[in-house]
Write a structure and sequence with these properties.
Blueprint (H helix, E strand, L loop, with lengths): L3 E10 L2 E11 L4 E5 L6 H9 L6 E6 L2 E4 L14 E4 L11 H11 L4 H14 L15 H13 L5 E5 L7 H18 L2 E6 L2 H7 L2 E6 L2 E6 L1 H6 L4 H6 L3 E12 L2 E6 L5 E5 L7 E7 L4 E3 L11 E12 L4 E7 L2 E7 L7 E6 L4 E5 L3
Parallel strand pairs: 3-8, 3-9, 6-7, 7-8
Antiparallel strand pairs: 1-2, 1-4, 4-5, 9-10, 11-12, 11-14, 12-13, 14-20, 15-19, 16-17, 16-19, 17-18
Bound molecules: adenosine-5'-triphosphate.
The site of adenosine-5'-triphosphate has 11 residues, from helix 1.
Length: 361
């Protein structure tokens, strides 16, 4: 199947820009996720691809077929794009059986009756629902309805599958199961998929690559590992996982590392990266990369930083203890399998575990 290419999409509503220079390519068979906080423009981007919204400018194409290039001649209506669409609301017709719900897009495409039955049973088998083909939607659970909606999205073998938060109506446990199942289905069918979610765990576990949106702009496109390990901006670092963002000033710089004075604490942190002495910087520090120790003689082992912090709060979450700490004017969140009862504690931090974001002017 050809790739989906989105180039320089801009979109505004009533004079307010909601998408700015959106650019990405989704490869054949790839599971590609648009991730970001509420209102950042994910659904609008998906709607532009689907043809439900018209961008102000830019290009959208699948292989050689141009869906949109800013000219009326190349604005293909949604029904001409051969895309599979599944939304948060399953949008099944309540007065039709499951099989009839799936037949609808096939009838629209004038598929012969005998072929319809084969395709419907094929799609329902893929989602493990063929035994319920003659039921009505209200006779199914939410999870089952969501499977039917997915089956309807793939029954006519679309070129690309577009999914907008399809799991968000499910409870947490079903959502986990549905995630595993959805990933298996996508692999089996091998269909190029664009998935919208604001749930970073969902994005990380499902996707081949993720596009992180903030305020209508793409901040970063990368594999889940790239996005987590090397977030392009402090905003991405803060959105994915639990990351402390500590403001400071570069004290000194040497080959491949800098010393950052944190806030007004007077404490210094050696960080891998480059920066210029005297400039401001933000240091990203993931909670789980901080080691807490009660030992006062904590080793300066191979350049590991040792910071002294005050324990403000400790909460037990079952699997671990979570700590709210203060380093002077800075607040740090950390976690540990051990309960530390003192007022103060040492934080061991490897320079390689710090993400350095020098101030850009
Ligand atoms: N039809 C519309 N008219 C006016 N503004 C709109 C319209 N559709 C979306 N917007 C605005 O565009 C921005 C992006 O909305 P969009 O639905 O794409 O965000 P999102 O990232 O998908 O958010 P969510 O996760 O909450 O669905 C928001 O500020 C929204 O209010």
């Amino acid at each position: 199947m050809p790739e989906l290419v989105v180039e320089n999409i801009k979109k505004s509503f009533h004079g307010t820009t909601v998408l700015e220079d959106i650019d990405f390519t989704v490869a054949d068979g790839e599971f590609f996720t648009l991730l970001g906080p509420s209102g950042c423009g994910k659904s609008t981007t998906l709607s532009c691809v689907a043809g439900l919204e018209t961008p102000d400018s830019g290009t959208i194409r699948v292989g050689d077929q141009v869906f949109f290039d800013g000219t009326p001649r190349h604005t293909v209506p949604p029904e001409g794009r051969n895309l599979g669409l599944v939304f948060q609301s399953y949008a099944l017709w309540p007065h039709m059986t499951i099989a009839d719900n799936l037949a609808l897009p096939l009838k629209l495409r004038k598929v012969p009756k005998a072929e319809q039955r084969r395709l419907i049973d094929d799609a329902l088998t893929k989602v493990d629902m063929v035994h319920l083909r003659d039921r009505y939607p209200h006779q199914l659970s939410g999870g089952q309805q969501q499977r039917v909606a997915l089956a309807r999205g793939i029954v006519y073998s679309p070129g690309v599958l577009l999914l907008d938060e399809p799991l968000s109506n499910l409870d947490a446990k079903m959502r986990n199961q549905a995630r595993l199942w959805l990933k298996g289905l996508q692999r089996e069918v091998g269909i190029t998929t664009v998935y919208v979610t604001h749930d970073q765990v969902e994005a990380m576990s499902l996707s081949d690559r993720i596009a992180v949106f903030m305020h209508g702009r793409l901040q970063q496109v990368g594999t889940p590992t790239e996005i987590y390990e090397t977030p392009a901006t402090p905003e991405v670092a803060g959105f994915i996982g639990r990351c402390n963002l500590l403001e400071g000033r570069v004290d000194s710089a040497e080959e491949g590392s800098v010393q950052v004075q944190l806030g007004t604490t007077g404490q210094r942190l050696k960080v891998t990266g480059t920066g210029s002495a005297g400039t401001s910087a933000t240091v990203g520090l993931r909670s789980e990369r901080i080691t807490l120790t009660d030992r006062v003689d904590a080793p300066h082992d191979g350049g590991v930083n040792v910071l002294r912090a005050r324990i403000e709060q400790c909460s037990y979450t079952g699997a671990r203890f979570e700590y709210e700490l203060s380093l002077g004017d800075l607040r740090v969140h950390a976690e540990s399998p051990i309960q530390h009862t003192g007022r103060e504690i040492n934080l061991l931090i490897r320079p390689d575990d710090c993400l350095l974001y020098p101030e850009t002017v």
